[in-house]
Design goal:
8-stranded antiparallel β-sheet, 152 residues, two-stranded antiparallel sheet, Jelly Rolls, alpha+beta, 3 helices, 43% strand
């Protein structure tokens, strides 16, 4: 057997502030041999962010709350216990439609964790989008994420 057992207890992990909520690293690529990553996402009620494409595939499993996912031209309303898998490069976005939601996000490879960490370290939280947009665009460019026009 190769590798090492990794445990992240309740309330533990590295929190990374993103525009759609706090993504806490529960299992990073360094714990899975770079195969996948696991994040606990705590997100407040908010409208959907801009649709985007990322180079990694992912699964969202709703633990608490209600989430509407727009993916590949389809709309899916998810509640506790529901999951959706989104292929790499599939255009998607999501919005929390309840007061808040807690989602388990599992992504392939090591790209999502590097992207979230870079975004959290580079883009100042709570600032007007006009002020931080150049930093946002630079971070997404570095990680192969692309923004799409709403409705795409």
């Amino acid at each position: 057997m190769t590798g090492k057992i990794h445990l992240t207890g309740p309330g533990a992990g590295v929190p990374l502030a993103m525009p759609d909520g706090v993504h806490t690293v529960k299992a990073g690529a360094e714990h899975t041999g770079g195969v996948y990553e696991v994040f606990e996402v705590e997100a407040p009620r908010a409208p959907a962010g801009p649709p985007h494409r990322s180079p990694w595939a992912g699964t969202m499993y709703v633990v608490e709350g209600d989430v509407t996912v727009h993916a590949g031209g389809e709309v899916h309303d998810l509640g506790p216990g529901a999951a959706i898998t989104i292929p790499a490069r599939c255009p998607f976005t999501f919005e929390v439609t309840s007061k808040a939601a807690r989602v388990l996000a599992i992504t392939t490879g090591d790209g999502a964790g590097r992207f979230f960490a870079d975004f959290a370290a580079t883009v100042p939280a709570g600032r007007p989008i006009e002020e931080v947009l150049p930093a946002v665009l630079e971070v997404i460019r570095r990680h192969g994420v692309s923004l799409l026009e709403p409705g795409s």
